[in-house]
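Exam revision sheet. Question 4 asks you to relate a sequence to its structure. Input first:
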Amino acid sequence: MPANLPPHYFEAEKRFREAKTPQEKVEALEEMLMIMPKHKGTDKLRAEVRRKISKFKSQAQQKKGAGKRETAYSIEKEGAAQVVLVGPPNTGKSSLISALTNAEPEVAAFPHTTWKPTPGMAAFENIKFQLIDTPPISRQYIDPWMADLIRRCDILAMVVDLHADPLGHLEETLEVLADLRIFPEGRQIPAELKKPPFIKKALVIVNKVDSEEAEEDFQVFLELCELKLPCVPASAKNHRYLPDLLAKIFEVAGIIRVFTKAPGKKPDLNAPFILPRESTLEALAGKIHKDFVKKLKYARVWGKAVFDGQMIQKDHVLQDGDVVELHI
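Answer key, structure tokens:
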């Protein structure tokens, strides 16, 4: 299908070619994107323009000053954990984000549809995870701002396509991340590394496990994959395994949910406090209010590892799902 671009588009394209600074190029590219008709004939062109916008925005940000810590795309953390999805082109990251969250990233069957990070909230039982879709990464190119985004996240989710060399996808992703000094937990750190590494909790999402036959291919992938990381199947197409994926994210996050109640009252089971696994009653008190740690006399707890209403002290290790009644 022909693109049928209007004359104003070519005028903006000329301004892009003549632009001297990254910011001027971004302005021209954004105008081109706004003018461009939206139909199948322009899909690949739109993706290419978005990729260029992302590239020149990163350059413009770098020129503003290397001392600034803010990135081109700084996303404030929300929910129980921030999970950044990374991977080569067309592995289905955007489709997974769309299936799991309230976000609406643009999805298409060609590379570079995603040109900026897109966050969305995924509900898991009584909490939510913040999942972030990102532009594709490869040995040839990665948006410079992505390094900071990944380094700041709580969990790194590497997405591979079961039907398009998933082992190669994973190897390439790990190589690109290693160049950024980003390593999954348990990954060997190169001895020649000059600067401190960024160690991240991580998992591998094997996307496009859309049928029973694909499940066999997933098992083969697990047998051939030598990396000791949690690997979970997923199907953005028909939503298979998505609850299991969120459960695995909860496991990898290493967190517990603890509820509080006032004496004689019922707890709000929709508003848990999120704490690291192995947290104590003292840690919970400090999270509620800094003065609670000093004022806390004791607490009673209801849960699977205690008898109902058991009295506990500050050093008691809490469990996921505990209900705590604090006495100050």
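Marking note for examiners. The chain is about 35% helix and 20% strand.
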